Structures are given as structure tokens and as C-alpha cells.
């Protein structure tokens, strides 16, 4: 039998809130094209991500990866801090 490793989805976004313990809120922005008017529109999604060491601060650019559900709203974890605000 062969074992298959699954690639986890990764996204990058900006930390909008770090007030919770071991949790950060990450805003991910993307641009979509309107089907009729052909104009690009910004859409954003807020995701709760697990930050076990509480290293992330508000305004940091982070990379997050999908993981097993940690709580009711958390199923992403912080992989790395790409750019810090310090």
C-alpha cells in the first residue's frame, strides 16, 4: 500500500485582531471580476487562525494553513509571519 500525503490549503492575509488568547483574526482580500460590468471588485473574508505562542500582532502579514478543527470557529493555523509591523 502506498501512503498519500495531502497538501493543505495555504492563504496569506493581514491580522486584524489579536485580542483573543491563542487566536488571531486574519482578513484575506481577493479581487473578482463582475460578470456583467467586467469591473474588478474587492471581496474580503475573515478567518480565525490558531496562534499558540501569541506572536502575531495587529497589522502583521501572515501565512495560514488549513488544519483539523481546533474549536467551533478555528480550522486554520498560523504557519509563519511574513512581515511584522514592529
From TrEMBL:
Tell me any Pfam family this protein matches.
Ribosomal_S17
What GO MF annotations does this protein's record show?
Answer: rRNA binding; structural constituent of ribosome
Name a biological process GO annotation: translation
Keyword Ribonucleoprotein assigned to the entry: answer is yes
Q: What is this protein called?
A: Small ribosomal subunit protein uS17
Any idea what job this protein has? One of the primary rRNA binding proteins, it binds specifically to the 5'-end of 16S ribosomal RNA.
Source taxonomy lineage? Bacteria, Pseudomonadati, Pseudomonadota, Gammaproteobacteria, Lysobacterales
What's any one GO cellular component for it?
Answer: cytosolic small ribosomal subunit
Q: Which UniProt keywords apply?
A: Ribonucleoprotein, Ribosomal protein, RNA-binding, rRNA-binding
Note the HAMAP family from the entry.
Ribosomal_uS17_B
List, alphabetically, the InterPro entries matched: NA-bd_OB-fold, Ribosomal_uS17, Ribosomal_uS17_bact/chlr, Ribosomal_uS17_CS
Self-association or partners: how does it assemble?
Part of the 30S ribosomal subunit.
State the similarity comment.
Belongs to the universal ribosomal protein uS17 family.
Q: Gene3D superfamilies given for it?
A: Nucleic acid-binding proteins
Q: What PANTHER family has UniProt attached to this entry? A: 40S RIBOSOMAL PROTEIN S11 FAMILY MEMBER (PTHR10744), SMALL RIBOSOMAL SUBUNIT PROTEIN US17M (PTHR10744:SF1)
Amino acid at each position: 500500500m502506498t501512503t498519500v500525503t495531502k497538501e493543505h490549503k495555504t492563504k496569506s492575509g493581514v491580522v486584524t485582531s489579536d485580542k483573543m488568547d491563542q487566536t488571531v483574526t486574519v482578513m484575506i482580500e481577493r479581487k473578482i471580476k463582475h460578470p456583467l460590468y467586467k469591473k474588478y471588485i474587492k471581496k474580503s473574508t475573515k478567518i480565525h487562525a490558531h496562534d499558540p505562542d501569541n506572536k502575531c500582532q495587529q497589522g502583521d502579514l501572515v501565512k495560514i494553513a488549513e488544519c483539523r478543527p481546533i474549536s467551533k470557529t478555528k480550522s486554520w493555523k498560523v504557519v509563519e509571519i511574513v512581515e511584522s509591523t514592529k
